[in-house]
Design goal:
The protein folds into two domains: 186 residues, Penicillin-binding protein 2a (Domain 2) (Alpha-Beta Complex); 357 residues, Beta-lactamase (3-Layer(aba) Sandwich). Helices cover 36% and strands 19% of the residues. The strands form six sheets. Strands 2, 3, 4, 5, 10 and 16 form a six-stranded mixed beta sheet that branches. Helix 10 packs antiparallel against helix 20, helix 13 packs across helix 15 and helix 14 packs parallel to helix 19.
Length: 613
């Protein structure tokens, strides 16, 4: 019996030891290994305040500051620390309603009872000054500073872009961002987000039972400074950009100006535009909704995303391809009797002298001439069929950057459309189409679609006698030797450089030919600058035709190329040509001497007149 009790004593002792061991292990795990309770305790006495870095500044090419930062404040809330407070005083300071307070409190508790979150974002400096004095009356609330974008001028909204709060998709896919962070949404702000954003920091403070900061925790040992974003010098000329937007008031369309020797974008105008400052502050959502619902689409980035038929501006490309394929020469002449005729096909043309050679055909913008050229290209006997001729033509066209993204540094660039032979196969069958079927391509109509940026790049390619640099909007990134290497590479076309002077002469004659010579763009003449250009009128089945003009100047050693596209503007010489001419004069001379031209454009209102009609 004694042995039985002895054995029970040992068993009980072992069980007691095991229970004590388990408890000790659990306490060790909770107090030493598991930091969650320590963290929760710390949250009750420590406050972690994120230090948002100032985004990098953005300058124009001359050093003029375009985008900078200004301090605003986010009112934060820790729901677990909130006690009853005077909501009337609270609402009076913040200019919000009692209903707003209740809704925001509920949202904060749903988000997290212990984790701080924004209660009211972008509180102004003036409101903050009043709030700071009485913040102790509102336990559970504290203020977190944050820089916000400011703009020195109301220009270049589509080029500079804007920032906005990150959404759940961004947070899920990039651990850098947390709720309440801001990110570049468009333009330079988006394209160079990682350069501009900097790195967030944090300050750790001790707080008392009233949630008031008593000092830095451990003398700032756990603090991390914010690293300011990197500054950027854009390629934009602020004065030229501002002038372009002024000329485009009350018009729908775009202006793209490029320095051909570098591919740097000098002006990037999309009209109607918007003031980038309007998409800042707490009223941003309402403004964005208004802009988004506007039927004129002021948020739509036309230089990058609008695709149009290039119209007669495209004749210079067909002329170059005809020369390269040796189906025409400079002195090759074609007759024009009011247009081009072939069986039932008739492409009309305006009245002008006939016959014309190639430079004269560009000068007069003769439809019949380029219909003949186009058919010679596709029906060239060196090719076994029109399909091979068409594919050869298309290959030349693509070499100018059409039908593909130019890989600029802008986001959301579209590639336009240059149909493949299979496109026509689907509609007409593999043997059911010919050069006559696609004849509208001869004069830049039909299925061909090009962005204004591509049209400006085409003009830069001609000005450079056969090559282009990828268009880009950033000239310099602070602290880096140079921007992306791809912007320094020449992209050569399939056209030999010896043929470009012939086309350039025709573009010169189109602007500078004597009165009565049939020059279609004499309105673009500048007495002491040789402007080379080509008008275009794109057919629009939904209303008035579109007015188009491409140009570069001076003729020798060009400094600027432009494409101007005015929706529902009629003939190319009506509005697009004078606008381009004024932009050239503004850039090269820094002043406007032809006051009549300027007044004519500034007084033209195509938006409200269109609505009235």
């Amino acid at each position: 019996m004694k042995n039985i009790y002895e054995n029970r004593k040992y068993v009980f002792g072992a069980l007691l030891f095991l229970v004590v061991f388990v408890f000790i292990g659990k306490l060790f795990s909770l107090q030493v290994l598991d930091k969650s309770y320590q963290t929760t305790a710390n949250r009750n006495v420590l406050r972690y305040i994120i230090r948002y870095p100032a985004r990098g500044l953005i300058y124009d090419r001359t050093g003029e500051l375009l985008v900078y930062n200004e301090a605003i404040y986010d009112l934060m809330i820790s729901p677990n620390l909130v006690e009853e407070f005077d909501t009337s005083v609270f609402c009076d300071i913040l200019k919000i309603t009692h209903e707003d307070v209740e809704k925001k409190l509920e949202n904060a508790r749903k988000y997290s009872y212990y984790t701080s979150s924004p209660f009211l974002k972008q509180v102004s400096s003036e409101t903050y000054a009043v709030l700071q004095e009485k913040l102790y009356q509102f336990p559970g609330f504290f203020v977190q500073p944050r820089p916000i974008r400011k703009y020195s001028k109301k220009i270049a909204g589509h080029a500079l872009g804007y920032v906005g709060e990150v959404d759940e998709h961004v947070i899920e896919n990039d651990p850098f961002y947390k709720m309440g962070d801001y990110i570049g949404i468009s333009g330079i702000e988006k394209a160079y987000e990682e350069v501009l954003r900097g790195e967030k920091g944090v300050n750790v403070y001790m707080v008392d039972v009233h949630n008031r900061i008593k000092g830095s925790y451990q003398n700032g040992k756990n603090d991390k400074p914010a690293i300011v974003g990197t500054n950027i010098v854009s390629t934009l000329d602020a004065d030229l950009q501002e002038y372009g937007e002024k000329l485009m008031m009350n018009k729908v369309g775009s202006i793209v100006a490029i320095e051909p020797s570098t591919g740097e974008i000098l002006a990037f105008v999309s009209s109607p535009t918007y003031n980038p400052s309007s998409l800042l502050g707490r009223g941003r959502s309402k403004v964005f909704e208004t802009l988004s619902s506007d039927t004129l689409e002021p948020l739509f980035n036309r230089p990058l995303m609008a695709t149009y038929p290039p119209g007669s501006t495209f004749k210079v490309i067909n002329g170059l391809i005809g020369l390269q394929e040796k189906v025409i020469y400079k002195q090759t002449e074609f007759y024009c009797d009011g247009g081009y005729y072939s069986g039932r096909i008739h492409v009309s043309c305006h009245s002008h002298d006939s016959p014309l050679n190639l430079p004269e055909a560009i000068q007069n913008s003769c439809n019949a001439y380029f219909c003949n050229v186009f058919r010679r290209i596709l029906d060239n006997p060196v090719f076994p069929s029109v399909r091979e001729g068409y594919n050869s033509w298309r290959g030349h066209v693509l070499s100018f950057g059409f039908g593909q993204k130019l890989e600029t540094d802008f986001p959301f660039e579209l590639k336009g459309f240059v149909p493949m032979d299979s496109y026509y196969d689907r509609y007409y069958g593999k043997t059911g189409w010919s050069s006559l079927t696609v004849l509208s391509l001869a004069i830049g109509q039909g299925e061909l679609l090009i962005t204004p940026l591509q049209m400006a790049n085409m003009t830069a390619t001609i000005a450079n006698h056969g090559y282009y640099f990828t268009p880009h909007i950033v000239k310099e990134i602070e602290g880096e030797e140079k921007i992306d290497e791809r912007f320094f590479s020449k992209h050569f076309t399939t056209i030999d450089s010896v043929y470009f002077p012939i086309i350039i002469d025709g573009m010169d004659m189109a602007v500078n030919g004597p009165p009565g010579s049939g020059s279609t763009a004499r309105i673009a003449r500048i007495d002491d600058i040789i402007v080379c250009g080509k008008t275009g009128t794109a057919e629009n089945p939904h209303g008035e035709d579109h007015s188009i003009f491409v140009a570069f100047a001076p003729k020798d050693n060009p400094k600027i190329v432009l494409s101007v596209y005015i929706e529902n503007g009629g003939f190319g010489a009506t509005y697009a040509a004078p606008i381009a001419s004024l932009m050239i004069e503004k850039y090269l001379k820094r002043e406007i001497t032809r006051q009549w031209h300027e007044n004519y454009i500034l007084e033209t209102d195509l938006i409200h007149n269109e609505k009235e009609n």
